[in-house]
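Onboarding guide, step 5: your first structure request.
Type a short instruction followed by the sequence, for example:

Predict the 3D structure of this protein.
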Amino acid sequence: MKSGTITASLFTALLLASCAAGKYEKSERGITVNIAADTENSVRKVRLQVIDDKIIRVSATPDKKFSSDTSLVVIPPRANVEYTIAETDSTVSLSTSQLTATVSFSTGDVKFYNKDGRLIVAEADGGREFSPIEVEGTKGYTVRQVFESLDKEEGIYGLGQHQSDEFNYKGKNEELFQYNTKVSVPFIVSTDNYGILWDSYSLCRFGNPEPYKQLGQVFKLYDKDGKEGALTGTYVPAKAEEPTIVQREDSIYFEHLIRKELKHVVNLPQDFNYQGSHVTYEGEIEPSESGEFKFILYYSGYMSVFIDGKEVVPERWRTAWNPNSYKFAVNLEAGKRVPVKIQWEPNGAVAYCGLRVYSPVDDKEQMQMSWWGEMQSQIDYYFIYGDDMDDVIHGYRTLTGKAPMMAKWVMGYWQSREKYNTSDEVLSTFAEFRRRGIPIDNIVIDWLHWKQDSWGSHEFDPERFPDPKGMVDSIHDMNGRVMISVWPKFYVTTEHYKEFDKNGWMYQLPVKDSIRDWVGPGYLSSFYDAYSPDARKLFWNQIQDHYVPVGIDAWWMDASEPNIRDCTDLQYRKDLITPTALGPSTKYFNAYGLMNADAIYNGQRGINDNRVFLLTRSGFAGQQRYSTATWSGDIATRWEDMKAQISAGLNFAASGIPWWSMDIGGFCVEDRFVAAAAEFDKTGRETPDMKEWRELNTRWYQFGAFAPMFRAHGQWPYREIFNIAPENHPAYKSVVYYTNLRYDLMPYIYSLAAKTHFDDYTIMRPMVMDFTADKATRNIGDQYMFGPSLLVAPVYTYGATSREVYFPEGADWYDFYTGKEINGGQTLKVAAPYERIPLFVRSGSIIPFGPAMQWSAEKPADVINLYVYAGEDGKFVLYEDEDTNYNYEKGQYAMIPFSWNDETSTLTIGKRAGQYPGMLRNRKFNIIKVSDKTPVGYGRDKKGVVVAYNGEAKNVKL
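The system replies with structure tokens like these:
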């Protein structure tokens, strides 16, 4: 006893001596380690803070104390967690029951180990950098943090939603900023079962910390005549009588408008008519080193790229006013000149293009994970460990907030277009769905429902919408809901603008620079400062005064990047929204959408018990706590864009934000499709382009039926299926089939929504989340799981009637339509006829299908067709509540557990847990077993074993 006491006393004395020596000290929730700085901007302090057993915050600064900034993303942690501290001569370690973080006394580098001592993640030696930056009198640092690559086969996912159709970000580069079709979220999840939340709101870069370079900075350029120093640009106008321009181009950088003037594109010839023109950039490039060069193409109109005689970018298209980026890589030899040719059809009077490049990077360096932030007070990130990728997402939502339950009608079908111009158009469209018996829950009223000169008034134009409340009431009478477009934008002549402006809550430079929009003669406007809490309250109060009395059900937060003017450079974008209430926009560039969502969610929660729903074009880490979904912006009506939405949606889901949508069919329409639709309306003739338009929409609707939010939207041609194709057309039949199937699946989908709230689940799931051990899934970004049971394989090639599908190891599979069994661990070419998307069910699945409905709450699910897919054990929990209010937060809901024992062929229907007002107490389950011996495809009228259920447990032998 005495010896033990002495040992404990000695340990305490040694610990105190170490602290006294200044190596580290205990701080709130953890420790702070003091580092002997080599230079003025070297790290001086590294802090570890325990958030829970699997989450540790890491902060590092070259200053004498840490910043007192409050995180915009992370919510206050729960109760303190127990941890221990251990020290060696060179390190100090902080350990929870699940995790150990070790800090080097000499460098401040941090390493993370699991409870078994396995190294999970390590900061790279010398991988932490600070460079002072001062903007508008505010000091901060441009920072970088690099982590070692411990596993070359690791898969990394997340970072938000981007449009280059990249899926696994291991060894990739991504610039993180907000743009119309680009949503940046500084969070990743790894197949090694960890995640990192980079707590920064500025422009960030994942991977290469440098901006892409101009071609002439990396290559020797030669024009088409062989003269060094530039490529040849040839501008051929549409009209033969106009002159052709030929000039030398020392860069291909025509990516934004000239600041303030905003009429011409930087570096392009100004006295040239680009509409209908053909532009070619050609010559040769000569690298000074060998290796893989990573290019980024910026394009609007039609563009293709050839290097060394090979087409490295087949033709791509984006509308002229809304360019896109696409990445590709080419291996080149030092000193070897190769031809390059860029073919461009601008397809607009003002259009944009660019081609920039990264030089080769050592493979070891490229495979490391690097985070760079333009302006931060310090380095701040959260390390999250999990038992699996779902557990990591759970940790992310522990940090940033749970996703509330969406109303059930959110999971129904949404019809939108740009735009319904009158109340008659709104009502007649919704009524037509009801007349035809096509299920629908929601209709959307887009921008310009106000008078032309009154953007931001929140008042309907009385000539086109004479009785807004009557219109909304009529939609409600048809058992529908209405979402309205509300921008953070205000014309300077509106009273609402003046309310913000007098309090200093309106960005000033857009008005000073006289930036006018595209409406009518062009109106002067600006955006409010959503970083101000009082401005957010005013934003909601104005909505409450004007839209809430009309009965609006949901809020569409458009242009929430914020997008004050399309196609301006990043620096001008920052200048247009600075200063914010928190500081310079350079520091707070990416979080506007999060702040704007806060205004709506907390505003509505303060006035009624209706579940809030926001759809926002931009987003950021933490937005899920505000009952917010994001859609992928004004994407194009192209097959390559449809395909890109698969990987974009999956990475957005892997970013921890569960609710996502896209414009089914694409928003911006190619001229050929517009012409084809006009021809059909005039003559009834289906041209080849009209045929393709219908097939594109069919395939996109099939995909959209298995997205978290099922919504069609876009410019003309109209997107209602009865405006796309007649009733006897396979496009019409297919879209109606999958809309009905979406509603049949409502018990399954709504239960997944509950699992998303209660268990931090992810509905739209990369294959790698459920089959992490199967390394073949790590780069599959064109098929996915919809919940635990359904494998969805969209068709994204025109005219395709089959596609390859990978069936992962660890499960067997069933064809949804036939019930035929397929063994896992193989890739097969599967049938994909026009009217059907390849759809498969995992063995062990239990899927509840509800009754045929025209809207999500039309009838109670008193008879559920319960499909049980044999082959392995399985389980599912059916969730039900009142669908539209927050009583579930008070425990008013019911759950019915199901479990399948494959060996005994027994289904257990568990005792119902919980209750709520209006709960269905008695129902029937029509149980249909699907197995290799009894293949059964899905159908509403299939007969199985019928079991009456009153809430008590039952075992059913099948």
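Each response can be followed by summary notes, for example: The mean pLDDT is 96.
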